[in-house]
Specification:
Helix content is 41%, strand content 6%. It has 6 helices and 2 strands, in the order H-H-H-H-E-E-H-H.
Length: 143
Amino acid sequence: MRARDYLRSRGHTVIDRRYDALDIIDSDDDESSFAEGKEKYRLHRSRERDSSITKKAKVARLKDTGTLSCDICDFYNKYGMLGLGVIEVHHKVPVSELDGDTKTKISDLALVCSNCHRMLHREKSTMHISELKKIAESYAASV
């Protein structure tokens, strides 16, 4: 049973944003249907992460190259000083696949800009860094 069906069977309202997007495109209304900014408290399950290893990865990259650049694209050269140090840390093996006993090494991580990080996680199964790099390079060559 899909999670959506399970939640609906227990009386919860499930909003499928894929279909809502079509309604938004067809709508002429330029105002939100509700007031934004209201505080909402949530309880959810998350996986623990060690923020110190991400800091170590950034420090190691700075020592090696003198800059924090994206492993996939040319983010820094597009934005210059504005893009300096704007970097995220990506787990090459998704955290969701770790068993809770795995200790992460710097070599298990990649430094990527926020756009590339989002693209890596765009599909249900995480795209490999080399695959996205190939796509980005082929697109850059065609432009």
